[in-house]
Amino acid sequence: MYKDIAEETKAFLLSLSLFNEKLTEKDYMRKLYAIANQIKDNYYIYEIPKKSGGVRKIYAPNYTLKYIQKQIVRNLLQEQRISKYAKAYYKGATLKENAVIHQKKSVILKLDLQNFFESITFKQVYEEVFYMYPENIRVLLTNLCLYDNRLPQGAPTSPYISNIVMREFDERIGKWCKDKKINYTRYSDDLTFSGVFEPKEIIKKVKEELYKRNLKLNKKKIHVIKNSMQQRVTGLVVNQKIQVAKSYRKEIRKEMYYIRKYGIKSHLEKINSSKNKEEYINCLKGKINFVLMINKEDKEFQKYQKEIN
Q: How do residues 201-232 score in pLDDT, each as one tens digit?
């Protein structure tokens, strides 16, 4: 119970400023331990459809727990070392940075981790993320970041924790690939390899390393792509110059054509959109900005950006 914790532990937890409200020291500690002990009561769970079919569960923390988790990220997680092969979930990470490593390569192998976040356990977080703290703090922090002893998809802490837990895996696979002159990156649960290699050899090695960490490959998402085909890495085409897929740009081009021809209001009526004018414009603006983020010199999309603005 919070009443029994040492003064230095109390001082450390207070220094994290885990609540966005003024509380007495006693109320701060009581509230913090109450949340950690009843963690499930502080989440809202909903489902979103997957592109590949089925649904994905999202665990959304309530306002108070979300603030606590953001403070844990800010004060404890974001400065922890991650592997150079991890290309997501850190300041400055971009899809392009992940893709450019695999540009103009003979073969690309794409692998996907099955139930990635949910497969990361209490033991892994306790031992690999918060290992530097006394036991009572380690237990408390781990509980505040998990749901049912698993990493919840939807919590602000989960992406950072996943990179820390995967650090050793990334380094081992990265070194193995470097010795064989193979390029490797991991963007969340997407593993990408490029160069000249035998795919079965890589898959065997990855499975061995994943097994040690209670992780598995998604057998339905193993893709070998030669350079005679369109090679995409995290949604970007990498055969020659890095660019957004032609189909994505074509769809934006079509939307702009109909807006010019009919006006936004009539266009929304024709496509029976559930979005209002403002929502639709913001969505389209985001798509155009994404294209320009990848290729800022694209004159056509610069023109679209000005029109939409």
A: 999 999 999 999 999 999 999 999 999 999 99
Q: Residue 262 and residue 52: Cα distance in Å, rounded?
A: 34
**Nearest C-alpha neighbor of 31 from the set 14, 8, 44, 11:** 14
Task: Report CA torsion sign: 202, 113, 174, 234.
Answer: positive
The first and second tokens of residue 30, run together, are 């009581």
- N- to C-terminal Cα separation, the chain: 56
d(CA 265, CA 109): 44
153, 162 contact by CB (below 8 A): no
> What does the alpha-carbon distance between residue 192 and residue 267 come to, in Å, rounded to a whole number?
39
- Token duo for residue 73: 């990220």
Adjacent-strand bridge partners of 123: none
Model confidence pTM above 0.85: yes
Q: What letter represents residue 273's amino acid?
A: S
